[in-house]
Every structure is written in structure tokens, then in C-alpha cells.
Design a protein that fits this description.
The protein is α/β, with parallel strands linked by helices. Helices cover 44% and strands 19% of the residues. The protein has eleven helices and eight strands.
Length: 270
């Protein structure tokens, strides 16, 4: 499929269904709306995110976020005192992020732009941060190369992708596609798209990666560290999971997630 079609699908998806907006009950764009999404992100979905990334360490650093979404992490970076820029291919996402920052008294250089063609000079940033975005970019390799280009020498990239050899993806293939016969009704790519869309028609591109693939894609960087984390919402999807599995076996899931977690975290130094 043409890469521009995938990009248009992403724009359609996140315009109609802003990221995690389904958890918010307050009017879109209100302070309460953003607070609800932030609470879901940091307390339920990824309680490990802030302790893991330690946004406060980027005070006075020039930071670019690739794919700002609703501006939830962007606000954390602003609170930490980072000198911020951010891009997103979806105009609605830039609009929401700008609003989120304004409600809290912060500003950022926000642009509608494509991750595969970053509108910045070489060696511009100390840090480039991108969480769960590059897995939906048609040419992920080009986006990674662009991140390397705009980073200063010894600059740091912090990227998250979806992990192919994760407990979650294995369970999807085993139960949804094989035991439930999902392969008779849809392709693996279509099932992957369902991870992101919620009732939308766009079916955005979603890709999963192995550690080996990631190391190859980040070959222009001098140092690379790869580790995994899990999302509570993918390990506890049903009432049985929440009532029985997580209380009894949560410690085991936490242990296993350090090797087979759903989020593949990459910290790479230029």
C-alpha cells in the first residue's frame, strides 16, 4: 500500500479519536479532560512511565518530541523545564497539545510535520523523545535516521516501539488468531491495527519489532540500550484478569515483562 495512504489513515484516526480520549468524561480540550487522560496513562496504563524516563533530568535541555498526541508527556517535559519542540502529522494533535500546555501556563514550538522529514537543522537537539509513534510510521528506518540527524553529537534518543516477542502479542496470536479462528476473518496486520483504533474506520498501520531488528535500525548510533516494560491494560483485559490473574500472579507478570513486555524501550546515544 502507498505510504501516503497509511499517513492519511493515521491523520483520520487521531482526528476522530484522539489518543486515550475514550477514558475522559469531561469536554474535549478542558483541563479536566487532559487530567483524566494523564491519570489513565500514569496510574493505570503505564505506571512505570514517569519513574522510568525521569523527565526531570531534561531541565534546560533542548528536547524534541516526535508524535505529541494529546500533549500528556509533552506537559511533563514542560514542567521539568525542558526547552521544547514537538511535531505530529495530525493537526488535531498539535491543537490539543497546544491547548494542554496553555492551560498549565507553558509553551512549545509545535509543528504539523512528518517524522520521516523532520523540519529541523542537523545537530539541533540534546534529546529526541517518541513514545509509541514510530511503529505507525510507514518508513520507520527513515524516521530513526532523521532523529539521528537532528540530534547533537552525544545526544540521546528515547524511543518506544511494540515488542514482537511479548507476552501480549503471543497471546493475541494464540487466542485471537488461532484458537478463536481470527485468521479466517482477518489478516495479522488487520489484527494489529485493532490495537490502536477504537471503533474507527481508518485502521492505522501498526508494526511490532524484535530486539535484533531494533539494533539494526539504530546502527547509526554509537550506544544503544534495549529493555521492555508492560502495560497493565494489555495484561488485564477481562474481569477474570483483574479479579484473579493480576492479584495472584501480578508479581510473575511483572517479572516476565522485564524480558517479554509489550513496550520495547530504546535509549540510544548518537
Amino acid at each position: 500500500m502507498n505510504n501516503n495512504i497509511y499517513k492519511q489513515r493515521a491523520i483520520e484516526q487521531w482526528t476522530k479519536h484522539p489518543i486515550s480520549a475514550h477514558v475522559a468524561k469531561n469536554p474535549e480540550g478542558s483541563k479536566e479532560f487532559f487530567n483524566e487522560i494523564a491519570d489513565f496513562r500514569y496510574k493505570i496504563e503505564c505506571p512505570w512511565l514517569r519513574p522510568t524516563f525521569k523527565f526531570e533530568q531534561y531541565q534546560d535541555k533542548k528536547v524534541l518530541e516526535v508524535g505529541v498526541g494529546d500533549g500528556i508527556d509533552h506537559l511533563e517535559l514542560a514542567k521539568a523545564g525542558a526547552i521544547l519542540s514537538g511535531i505530529d502529522i495530525t493537526p488535531k494533535s498539535i491543537e490539543l497539545t497546544k491547548k494542554n500546555l496553555e492551560l498549565h501556563g507553558y509553551k512549545s514550538n509545535l509543528l504539523v510535520a512528518d517524522a520521516e522529514n523532520l523540519p529541523f537543522e542537523d545537530n539541533s537537539f540534546d534529546v529526541v523523545y517518541s513514545f509509541g509513534v514510530l511503529l505507525s510510521v510507514p518508513n520507520t528506518q527513515k524516521a530513526i535516521d532523521e532523529i539521528c540527524r537532528v540530534l547533537k553529537p552525544s545526544g540521546k534518543a528515547i524511543i518506544s516501539l511494540y515488542h514482537k516477542y511479548s507476552l501480549f502479542w503471543i497471546s493475541v496470536i494464540l487466542f485471537d488468531m488461532i484458537i478463536k479462528g481470527g485468521f479466517l476473518r482477518k489478516t495479522v496486520q488487520e489484527r494489529l491495527s485493532e490495537i490502536e483504533y477504537r471503533g474507527g474506520e481508518a485502521k492505522p498501520l501498526v508494526k511490532v519489532y524484535t530486539r535484533r531488528q531494533v539494533r539494526k535500525m539504530f546502527h547509526k548510533f554509537s550506544k544503544i540500550r534495549i529493555y521492555t516494560r508492560h502495560s497493565d491494560t494489555v495484561f488485564t483485559r477481562s474481569k477474570i484478569d483483574k479479579i484473579i490473574i493480576k492479584p495472584l500472579f501480578g508479581w510473575l507478570l511483572e517479572l516476565l515483562s522485564k524480558r517479554w513486555g509489550w513496550y520495547l524501550i530504546i535509549e540510544a546515544e548518537k
